[in-house]
Each structure stands twice: as C-alpha cells, then as structure tokens.
C-alpha cells in the first residue's frame, strides 16, 4: 500500500459506508501521528449509520467513523516530549478547548467546544493514520495485554466515570440496567471499586448469561411489554415490586446504561433511600420519572456524559489485572470487512458483545 495512503471508512450518507483514500495527516507541533491498529464499534457509530444523527449532532457531510481505537506512534510533532515513535497507545478521542471554565476545573468532558472523534462534524479514527494531541494518548505499559484490549479503554472509561460520579465505595451494592458493552464495563469498574454485589438487568437472556459469567452476582430478565392501559411509571413500579418480592434488594447505586424509559423508572424505585442513581445510557430526550419518590427518599439523581481523567486509571486497572477486557471481544474483522462488522453489530448477530476492526496490516 502506498506510503501516503490513508484508507478511511467514511459514512457518506445514511446507510452508506465506503472506504475512501484520504490524505495522510501530518502532526501539529503538539500532536503525534498514530498508525491505527484496532478500532471497536460503538453503538453511536451504528446509530449515525442508520439514523444520520444523535440528538442535535447531525451528519451533514461525509464523516470518518470510529472513536474506540489504539495504535502505534509513527511520527511526533516538534513540541512532543512524552511519546516517541514506536510507542503503543490508547487514543482518547475527545479534545477540549483547554481554556474554558470546565476545562480549567478538570471537567473537560463538559467543554462546549469539545471536538470528539466521529461526532459530527469531526472525523473519527477508523482509518490507517490519525493525529491526536500527545497528552490525549496514553502509552501502554509493557504488561498491558494487547492493542485489542487498548481499544476498549474508551468504553471502560465510560464505566469508570459513572462509578466516580456515584462515589461508589467498597462494600456497596449496585444494580446495572443494560448488559451491553457499557453496562458490562460499568460492572467491571464497580467490582474494581469494591462493590460487593452487582445485579444486572436486561431483556436479552444471552447477554445476562454472559454477564453472570463475567461480572454479575445476580441477573434479572426484564419484562418487555407494557400491558395496555398501564402507564410506564406504573409498570415500572409494579415490576420493581415484583423484584423486591423475588428477593432482589434495592441497591446503594444504580447505573442506568440502557436509556430505556421503563428501566430509568424502575431504577429509581430500586435505589435505596439516600442512594445514588446515575443515568449513563442515552435514550429518549424526555422521560417521565417519579420525582416525588426521588424527593421523599432523598435519592441523588445525576447524569453521566462520556468521561474525563479516566484513561490512565483504566490502563492501570487492566495492566494490574483488576479488570479483564478480553472476554468482551467476541468478534474480529479485517479492515476491508468493516461494513460486515457494522452489520454484525447492528443486527446483534452471533451474540456479539464487542466487535473489533483490525488495522490494514494487523492479522
């Protein structure tokens, strides 16, 4: 393949992903160029492909997909002092402005001028070469398992951030709604934080089976359909009562990773008084919630958006053996088979948990 080629997988329009040779980037003084070796497929990538937007983020022009990536440094800008050519790195895909109130207070995930890979109009990382500021690349230590696991540092960071927001402490109990990759990694982060009991709730039995073997102490198969004439809040209240009668206890911390209306509502009812509810998953923009229950039981209710200051911690937890990411990697695809990878994730074929697209020269 020519030295200056930069084959990239581009979302041209809704439902249309094509390989396109774009110019190979040159790093700015504070950037490094990375040969991307592994990219994980996120639900947001699939959502842009199928729907063309997520909320107010609308794909208006062709955009390179992907933001869960790792690779090897191939070139460095003149001001770089930490990394060198040949270093293996996990790429943090959101670059803030550095100067706003939130950036200066270490909450850069809330920066209004954040440039996040594969969030319109910013191009993503599913390409041969990608440039990133040096301080948003984390060098992998020698005892880190592989570049495949490094691609999962991004979704693991979502889980770690949610546990930090919940102020999750050793000895606490956790219920997680949604046993997809983010929910599973939130569970792994909760366990590493000292949670003594993790209950996972989902409508998919195969995912619950996986969760039970991976991180969950207890799993619950949720009801799918709301009976006609019953409001979603009343359905959630009834379902939570069933859970309590079956022996499932309210938890100190709820991590809602599905974004589903009835899961949010059930999660509130399943939060202990004085407990903490963290909304991680993205779903409908407006959802009715039992606000009186939150008030009279003094539940701490908060949102969680991406992550900040988590990448190094995530790498350390994996390197030290506290979190094992390998079981989540169920599918691997060659670079040229990227569309097949997206189709597999969209249709949830073969009990896929996490699908990886390998770089052009990675077997």
TrEMBL record:
InterPro entries assigned: ADH-like_C (IPR013149), ADH-like_N (IPR013154), ADH_Zn_CS (IPR002328), ER (IPR020843), GroES-like_sf (IPR011032), NAD(P)-bd_dom_sf (IPR036291), SDH-like (IPR045306)
* Cofactors (names): Zn(2+)
Highest rank taxon of the organism: Eukaryota
Q: Which UniProt keywords apply?
A: Metal-binding, NAD, Oxidoreductase, Zinc
In the record, biological process GO terms are: sorbitol catabolic process
Entries under Pfam families matching the protein: ADH_N, ADH_zinc_N
Q: Which GO terms describe its molecular function?
A: L-iditol 2-dehydrogenase (NAD+) activity; zinc ion binding
Enoyl reductase (ER) domain location, by residue?
12-353
What sections of the protein cross the membrane?
A: none
Q: Which family does it belong to?
A: Belongs to the zinc-containing alcohol dehydrogenase family.
* PANTHER family for this protein: SORBITOL DEHYDROGENASE (PTHR43161:SF9)
* Protein name, as recorded: Sorbitol dehydrogenase-like protein
């Amino acid at each position: 393949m020519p030295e200056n080629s930069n084959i990239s997988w581009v979302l041209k329009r809704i439902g249309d992903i094509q390989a396109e040779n774009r110019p190979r980037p040159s790093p700015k003084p504070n950037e490094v160029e990375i040969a991307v070796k592994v990219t994980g497929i996120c639900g947001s990538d699939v959502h842009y492909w199928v729907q063309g937007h997520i909320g107010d983020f609308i794909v208006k022009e062709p955009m390179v997909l992907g933001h869960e990536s790792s690779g090897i440094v191939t070139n460095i800008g003149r001001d770089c002092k930490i990394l060198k050519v040949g270093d293996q790195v996990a790429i943090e895909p959101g670059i803030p402005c550095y100067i706003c109130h939130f950036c200066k207070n270490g909450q850069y995930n809330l920066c209004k001028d954040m440039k996040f890979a594969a969030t319109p109009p910013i191009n993503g990382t599913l390409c041969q070469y990608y440039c990133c500021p040096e301080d948003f690349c984390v060098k992998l230590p020698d005892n880190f398992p592989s570049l495949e696991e490094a691609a999962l540092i991004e979704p693991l960071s979502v889980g770690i951030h949610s546990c930090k927001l919940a102020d999750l402490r050793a000895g606490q109990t956790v219920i997680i709604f949604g046993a997809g990759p983010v929910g599973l990694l939130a569970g792994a982060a909760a366990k590493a934080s000292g949670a003594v009991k993790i209950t996972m709730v989902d409508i998919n039995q195969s995912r619950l089976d996986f969760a039970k073997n991976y991180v969950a102490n207890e799993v619950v198969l949720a009801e799918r359909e709301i009976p006609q004439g019953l409001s979603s809040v009343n359905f959630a209240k009834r379902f939570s009562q069933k859970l309590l009668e079956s022996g499932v206890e309210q938890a100190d911390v709820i991590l809602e990773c599905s974004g589903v209306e009835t899961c949010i509502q059930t999660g509130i009812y399943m939060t202990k008084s004085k407990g903490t509810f963290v909304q991680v998953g993205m779903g409908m923009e407006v959802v009715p919630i039992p606000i009186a229950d939150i008030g009279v039981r003094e539940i701490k209710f908060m949102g969680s958006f991406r992550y900040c200051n988590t990448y190094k911690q995530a790498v350390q937890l994996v390197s030290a053996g506290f979190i094992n990411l390998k079981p989540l990697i169920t599918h691997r695809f060659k670079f040229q088979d990227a569309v097949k990878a997206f189709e597999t994730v969209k249709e949830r074929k073969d009990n896929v948990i996490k699908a990886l697209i390998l770089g052009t020269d990675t077997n």
